[in-house]
Amino acid sequence: MANALVKQTNSAQSSPLKAVEGRHIPKGLAEIKALMSDRTRTPGYVFNAVLNDQQRKIVCIAAGLKQRHVEMSFYKFNIQERDAVRKGILALQNIVAAFTDANVLARENFERTPPKFDVVPQLVEQSKTDAQAN
Q: Which domain of life is it from (predicted)?
């Protein structure tokens, strides 16, 4: 039986291998790959090339940096300043998430007259802790 298997393997025709020189990448896919390249997927690229002056200023304020940082290249920031930028962006993200979760980002919500009562942050925190205690 082993001889039969060897004979079948030897007698089977193998398909010839073809060399693949290169494959065609569609233009759209090439553009997407260029946008997603390692060069453009860095915080420095986004800070320097994508954000405008106002957005860089907002990020720097959220990070607790000075006005001079707005005009500086991200790559001239030291490690602590870069980490402050990261933390500032995350803080801004949390603020946006709070407004989004409350479903109040629509323009008409900001144009309405104020409610008849003011929400006092200390009372809100106290009510949260009271609810958790019960």
A: Bacteria
Please indicate, yes or no, if residue 95 is contained in any of the structural domains.
yes
| CA–centroid distance for 81 within its chain | 19
Q: What is the pLDDT of residue 10?
A: 54
Q: Is residue 6 part of a domain?
A: no
Mean model confidence pLDDT for the chain = 80
Residue 28 C-alpha from the chain's centroid? 22
pTM value > 0.85: no
107 within a domain of the structure (yes/no): yes
Q: Return the number of other C-beta atoms located less than 10 Å from residue 130's C-beta.
A: 9
Total domains in the chain come to 1
- Domain residues for the domain of 64 are 52-113
- Scored b (16 or more CB within 10 A) or e, 31-63 reads eeeeeeeeeeeeeeeebeeeeeeeebbbbbebb
- Tell me the chain's radius of gyration from C-alpha atoms: 30
* pLDDT, tens digit (0-9, with 9 covering 90-100), for 63-99: 999 999 999 999 999 999 999 999 999 999 999 999 9
Contacts of 128 (CB under 8 A, 6+ apart): none
